Structure prediction request, 209 residues.
Amino acid sequence: TRMLAVRLHDASAGLAIGIGMLKGFNRDGVRQAQERPPAIETLESVLADLRGLSRSVADGTTRQIPPTSLEASLVREAKRAGVVLELDVVGQGDWLAMDDAELIHLAAREAMRNVKRHSGVATCQMSIDLSNCPFILRVRDWGGGISGAATPGTGIAMLMDLASTMGCDVRIRSQPGLGTELILTGRRCPYASGTPRPRGEGKAQLRSV
Prediction:
């Protein structure tokens, strides 16, 4: 399934970061003065993800419980990837459906990793607006940018496909020399403006820290 494919890509990307840390090299091939503990922590986290994925496949489901604190999880991922993250989360995410919460987490992680891999800069700005429906995730860098004719990479292409099947939308805006912005917009809200959103079973428990 699409969710399974995106999760496998996400886990393998995290594993690649951990392996690079163990080797003592960054993405530019420069040796770093890294100790083993951060690398071990990264690999253990990826191992836990893969084990959860194995359990979900065995159970016939592709859903995974998102982290309780989205902010804390993204800050950890940024540190592992070597990205300086400027993060702003507005609102509470306890009204989100579980698959929406996981999509936000996956898209944010992939965008951060792409900043490190492709932008030529180490800083990105991320905003997650959970105060209204639909939710909006924006990840912005001021790197080299990409041309309009460029084809999205495998991870972004899979996220676009997955989001589309869920009624969400992933778009990339970029110009050479002016950086890149990823925008994830949630599905259309089934509740009228001002109507309280029900909270109950099956909802994600994300919160600001």
Q: What stands out?
A: Residues 192-209 have pLDDT under 50 and may be disordered. Residues 22 and 39 are 6 Å apart (CA to CA). DSSP finds five helices and five strands in the chain.
